């Protein structure tokens, strides 16, 4: 009976167990997972653009090889997450269509420009660092396929974060011009990295339900604070300053107090008028159109295979 289904679902969540694709689940649970996993996947795919612009201009073969590996990883994360979303009854073609038509979101962070090669290091250190803070708890998300995808993705993210930090360490030991490039990149990426965690808890319409369903394990503000606590000592070691005059260690709590991100900026960027939104969507759309012949050929080939198998 239906009420039994809801009871079993609630008991599974209450006991910190996993909901699997064939289990009954409330429509709202399915819907918010499709929303979040699709956006997560879109973010990985769009995220290839800002760094991808530097593959052809990397300063050495070693840096080029590392960056190539990282961007390829992001593509893999995207495809992995589309597969997790497809276990909920959607299809990556439909999700891509929604992204291209602006009916689904991707992370605001990828709408900022990568002006120098120091941006590649700062993205690895701050953006992938923020991603790790957000994705480690998602390994304990109540939906099985999503949590398992996160375990593999988190392993690769730590390589992304390390290579970024090592790149910056190298530049900080270089010339004054290189040190200035690193500080300039930190000044441009610090606040947008804090905004990656989402709006403040009192302005986060999805959080209450996502936390009740144990999809989201910690609030936006809690994860943002964890990221700041983790990153400030790394900035000190690197020898850069963070562009927040209110940032200071709170002796009582042992954590860092910090200023308030510009929430109007986050809203604007999410709505589509960040520095690079139009360019990111234009390139995603043309990549999709240019790739149509591959999808058609693969579909035709699969149909021939199936016809041959039936003979
Ligand atoms: N960029 C774009 N949209 C954002 C956003 C951001 N930084 N922060 C919040 N939003 C959107 C939400 O999607 C929601 O809109 P929707 O209802 O239409 O989807 C709205 O703003 C309100 O935010 P909520 O806090 O209510 O939404 P959530 O509960 O979904 O929390 C989130 C937002 C914390 C980003 C959550 O969705 C999440 O944890 N997502 C999975 C992780 C993820 O997507 N990370 C993005 C970075 S990609 C990445 O890490 C790749 C790495 O390789 C760099």
Describe the protein.
InterPro entries: Aromatic_CoA_ox/epox, Ferritin-like, Ferritin-like_SF, PaaA, PaaA_PaaC. This protein has 311 residues and is mainly alpha-helical. It has helices at residues 2-14, 27-46, 48-52, 61-86, 92-100, 118-138, 144-172, 176-195, 207-212, 220-238, 263-271, 277-290, 292-310; strands spanning 248-249, 256-257. The protein has a two-stranded antiparallel sheet with strand order 1-2. Strand 1 and strand 2 form a beta hairpin. Helix 4 (61-86) runs antiparallel to helix 7 (144-172) and helix 6 runs parallel beside helix 8 (176-195). The chain starts with a helix and ends with a helix.
Helices and strands in order, then pairings?
Layout: H1 2-14, H2 27-46, H3 48-52, H4 61-86, H5 92-100, H6 118-138, H7 144-172, H8 176-195, H9 207-212, H10 220-238, E1 248-249, E2 256-257, H11 263-271, H12 277-290, H13 292-310
Antiparallel strand pairs: 1-2
Helix pairs in contact: 2-4, 4-7, 6-7, 6-8, 6-10
Percent helix among the residues?
Answer: 55-70%
Task: Tell me the total number of β-strands.
Answer: 2
**Class by helix and strand content?**
mainly alpha
Tell me about the biggest sheet? 2 strands, antiparallel
Integer average pLDDT: 97
The set of bound ligands, ions and cofactors reads: 3-hydroxybutanoyl-coenzyme A
Count of alpha and pi helical runs = 13
Give, in spatial order, the strands making up the sheet with the most strands: 1-2
Distance between the termini: 44 Å
Low-confidence stretches: none
Approximately what portion of the residues adopt beta-strand conformation?
Answer: under 5%
Protein name: 1,2-phenylacetyl-CoA epoxidase subunit A
Enzyme class: oxidoreductase
Keywords: Oxidoreductase
Organism: Streptomyces tagetis
